[in-house]
Design goal:
With about 425 residues, this protein is α+β, with helices and mostly antiparallel strands. The protein is built from 14 helices and ten strands.
Amino acid sequence: MNFSINTNYPLRFFFQDVIRDSFKTFSYYKLRTLLVMLTITLSIVMVVMVELIGVAGQVQVSKELDQFGINTFWVYLNPSTHKQISRIPFAESPHYINTKDIQTLKRNFPHETFIPELFGSTTIETNNLELQYSILGTTSEAKDFFLLDKGRFFTSSDLNNPERVCILSSKAADYFFGQESPLGKDIRLFGDPYRVIGVLASKEKSLLAQLGLIQDDAQDRIFVPITILQRRLNTDNIKVLKVIANNTSPTLLSQKVKRVLELSHRNKVKFEVDVMEKYAEIAHGILNNIRTVLHLISTVCLLLGCIGIVNMMLISVNERKKEIGIRKAIGATELQIALQFFIEAVLIAFLGGGIGIVLSIIGAGAIRSYFQLDSLLSVGFSLQLFLLVLTVGGISGIFPAIQAMKKSTTDCLKYE
């Protein structure tokens, strides 16, 4: 290998020679260089993907919270109280939230929205099979929580009309009607025909549900007006009351609603509240913990990349003693020798990191498309990546450069 440097060259010619000679060295040690570059590439990709997945997760959670309603909370009977009164049939129990309670709440909080929910189940006969299906009774105010694919949601007239109507999830529509449109057709629930007026849009399970924070089982249910289900069960009781805080803090309102209900029941029972804000904090906390763990892993990968560069450059310094001796003999200074190896380390990191950044941009496009997000890689973040790559290369090149400049000219020339 022919290496030369003219110390009388201007500085820019010196750096040109160094960079040219660095690429000659890389071509001579192809496999070693490629392996170290690969480590840096994977490290940078991991750093970027961790950041992008974290951002995408936060955005997705925010979107789902907006869909479920960040200002929403649920009120239901305290589980311990439920055990104490379990011997009383639900339909006859005076302890559950009932229609009278809801009217009291509407008088006390006229600007808030109250959506009662009642659960039931029925056996549906189809294809000579009997299938147990979950039924949810709700009101017209719940329409903002569901996305319809066909038909319409319940109206106030449906709640007051004795005609039996229902809304199917996309899963139920496909199961019971196949490729046919179910709108206007009947399905037998509780032994009676119910006319289908709407079908929910198909959707995958939400991230909040996958994290185990909320139940998102709309695709496994059939919906009916709550008044019809109450008549069927012969009760005014409901299982859960969903409340939308329009004009006040949901946390503050939840405590007030809870107190009104307990006073209405003469403090004989206790009620529980689940505020969506609590789930938002838990979800963001889980995502932050996941990001922290992944950041630690990516940091270890970067550290391994640094060690790889240091190891490669130290081996290179040892193998190129003869070259170092010749350079010093013809007038190269210790600084020039050190810069040769320092720049080589920076170039390896730069090339590996550059490939990593390109792959990260491609990955960012895929993540953006999947989560339907805006641009994820900002100019500022790209600049930080570039500086990170240079920092990794610089740190990795310091020790080998110092070792190279300390080599004795005489010892280096004697090396075979």
